[in-house]
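Re: the request from the purification team.
They wanted to know what the chain is likely to look like in 3D before they choose a buffer screen. I agreed to run a prediction and write the result into the notebook, where they can find it.
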Amino acid sequence: MRRERRVKILATLGPASSNEAMIARLFEAGADVFRINMSHSTHEEAEALHRAIRHVEETHGRPIGILADLQGPKLRIGEIEGGRVTVPEGAVFRFDREDKPGTVERVRLPHPPVFEAVEPGHMLVLDDGRLRMRVTANTGDVITADVVVGGPLSSRKGVSLPDTILPLSALTEKDRSDLAFALKLGVDWIALSFVQRVDDVAEARKLARGRAAIMAKIEKPSALAQLDEIIEMADGLMVARGDLGVELPVQKVPGLQKKITRKARRAGKPVVIATQMLESMITAPMPTRAEVSDVATAVFEGADAVMLSAESAVGQYPVEAVATMDKIAIEVERDPSYDAIVHAQRTTPEPTAADAIASAAHTVADTLGLSAIVCYTASGSTGIRVARERPTQPVIALTPVETTGRRLSMVWGLHCVLTEDPTDLDDMVDKACRIACQEEFAHPGERVIITAGVPLGTPGATNMIRVAFVEC
């Protein structure tokens, strides 16, 4: 099954898309990777979704990626007497450790690390940004704050601290359990929530031990201060715009999206743009014009993937949402200005043989007007390097490693095919040309460029390119 676009689509599974028949329809409509949200999935449900995805993969003969998204720490206030109060703007409000119902003047905050870290001048944001308070004092047992933006406050609402680095790991006990289970299942990507510092990513990598790629979700302002280090440590990034928009002024999010996307592209790390991309399609069969422009912007920026959340998980039109995103991406990539925009951020290759060859393959393919770039890749690094160039030609990634093919389904422009390593150089050329023809990327008499490593089958040894005529 050949996609007509290079950007990938990541679809979240949920009650609206939990059976194998619907997952197959989503894949056929354009989904390349499926997200299992561990915040809302039991281990039994996650196992059932994993099994269904693998059945669809087997049926269609195309690698499909699976991403398990960990919940991360959730900070919430305690119960409020009567369930709800209205906190007036300009009032003084207290957060304490007392185990009794809250009032219009105070509420319990059952998270000791907050009392350890918050300082006067820091902001507390409640209920997804609907209430905002500035801390004036912290005794260690009571946090006093001025209400900057008031409003209704209900029991168990979430609390965010955009100015505070909390002494918390990104992995709770639930996350560790979910991570171990997801790795046992054999998921391809782990999305790490609540990343505050590079050490959070390092901890997840240590636990994963290479069994899955780690995607750092950028949703905390503190992560932006160590963005370069986090990019270097992670295998990929997700721009979690919803949480960023709660903890930062919303007008800053578009600029940060561009910054993160460009930095990730320069580093050759897959980057996913997430949250509210086609939000109105939860209840409507068509998106708004603003949502179409939002998706188009991410595609023009050269993001590796765009993500659907509630649209495909609980929405009334999950298949239509995927199909709509597919159509938008195809149209954008056909736009006459697309190549100029996406290549305005072209990255200088690193001084390594593999990077130089990936860059050369792109240049040769453009100069000679070749039909496709075919890269043999065992670990996936060669495919990612070629994709970082954002070539105009289709890129076929040939790998004998099933997990590599699945992970690469997240990467821009890569059409992954599972195949055995070639036996010699002649077999390498024959196999590459035959697959390019079978997958309908090249026709007899056309030429492709092939990248590979000699000796064959050696990971990380990409050191040659070859231009070959296709004979089907």
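For the purification team: Residues 18 and 118 are 41 Å apart (CA to CA).
Please add any questions underneath this entry.
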